[in-house]
Write a structure and sequence with these properties.
263 residues; 7 strands
C-alpha cells in the first residue's frame, strides 16, 4: 500500500528513543523528511544519523525540551526555517512521575501539565496555520490506554493525557473543513524505557520483582505479550497518510486488547 508520504515533512517530538523513534523510523521508511526533537542531545544526534543512513531522507535534529516555551518555539521555528512547512505533527513526550494523589506536589502537577498538555497545544498552535492554508495536515497525539481505562498509580498521566484527548477531539471538529485530521493513538504496555521504569516503580510499591510486574501485565493482555514499538508506529504512519483522509477525532488503541470497553 502506498501511503502517499514520500516528500512529506513530519515533526516528531520526544523522538530519540522509544515510541517517538519508532514513529520517526516508520515515517522515514515511507519517504517522509523529519524534524526530530528530544532533550538528550547525544542520543538524539545518534538517532538522527541512524535514520539518515537507513532511509536516505533529510533529518533535522533539535535538542530541546518542549515543556519549556523557548524549546517549543525553537523546534517549530527550526522546522519552518529548514523546510518551509510541516505536514505531519506527532506530539509525544515521556511520562510524568507515577504515584498516588497525596504524593504529588503542586509543582509536579504544573510540570506534568507543561510536559503533556501545553507542549501539544503549543506545537499545534505553531504549525496548524500552515496546514490550514495548504488544506492538508495530520496531527497525531500520542497519549495512553490510561485515557480509557485509568491505571492505578498513574494519577498525573491519567489526568493530563485525558486533557490532551479533550483538546484533540475538539480541535478535530474545528479543522476538519480545512483537510486537517487530528487523532490520538493510545499505546498499551509496549517494550520501551518508560514501561521498564513503571515496572521498577511497581516493584518498589508491591515488594515484588519487576519481572513479576511484566508477568502481571502480560496476563491482563488478551494477546499475552507486551507490544513492540514498531507495531505502534505502523498505526501512526497509516493515520499520517493520504489513505487515512477520512479518519479524524478518533482515539485508537494499540494495546493487544487490554482495554475492556466496547468503544
Amino acid at each position: 500500500m502506498d501511503l502517499g508520504l514520500r516528500g512529506k515533512i513530519a515533526l516528531v517530538s520526544a523522538s530519540s528513543r522509544g515510541l517517538g523513534r519508532a514513529i520517526a523510523e516508520e515515517l522515514a521508511a515511507e519517504g517522509s523528511n523529519l524534524v526530530l526533537c528530544a532533550r538528550g542531545e547525544t542520543t538524539l544526534r545518534e538517532t538522527a544519523e541512524s535514520i539518515r543512513k537507513s532511509s536516505g531522507v533529510t533529518v533535522v535534529d533539535v535538542a530541546a525540551d518542549v515543556s519549556d516555551p523557548d524549546g517549543l518555539d525553537r523546534v517549530a521555528r527550526t522546522a519552518l526555517e529548514k523546510f518551509g512547512r510541516v505536514d505531519i505533527l506527532v506530539t509525544n513526550s515521556g511520562g510524568p512521575p507515577s504515584g498516588p494523589f497525596e504524593s504529588l506536589t503542586p509543582e509536579m502537577w504544573d510540570a506534568a501539565a507543561r510536559l503533556l498538555l501545553t507542549s501539544a497545544v503549543g506545537l499545534a498552535r505553531a504549525l496548524l496555520p500552515g496546514m490550514k492554508g495548504r488544506r492538508w495536515g495530520r496531527i497525531l497525539n500520542v497519549t495512553s490506554i490510561a485515557v480509557k481505562q485509568p491505571i492505578d498509580g498513574l494519577m498525573l498521566s491519567n489526568s493530563l493525557r485525558a486533557a490532551v484527548t479533550g483538546f484533540a477531539r475538539t480541535l478535530a471538529n474545528e479543522v476538519a473543513p480545512f483537510g486537517v485530521t487530528v487523532n490520538t493513538i493510545l499505546p498499551g504496555y509496549t517494550r520501551t524505557d518508560r514501561v521498564e521504569e513503571l515496572a521498577r516503580a511497581t516493584s518498589v510499591r508491591s515488594g515484588k520483582s519487576a519481572k513479576d510486574a511484566f508477568a502481571k501485565w502480560e496476563s491482563e493482555i488478551p494477546m499475552g505479550r507486551i507490544g513492540e514499538p514498531r507495531e505502534f508506529a505502523a498505526v501512526a504512519a497509516f493515520l499520517a497518510s493520504e489513505r487515512a483522509s477520512y479518519i479524524t477525532g478518533s482515539s485508537i488503541a494499540v494495546d493487544g486488547g487490554w482495554i475492556r470497553s466496547l468503544v
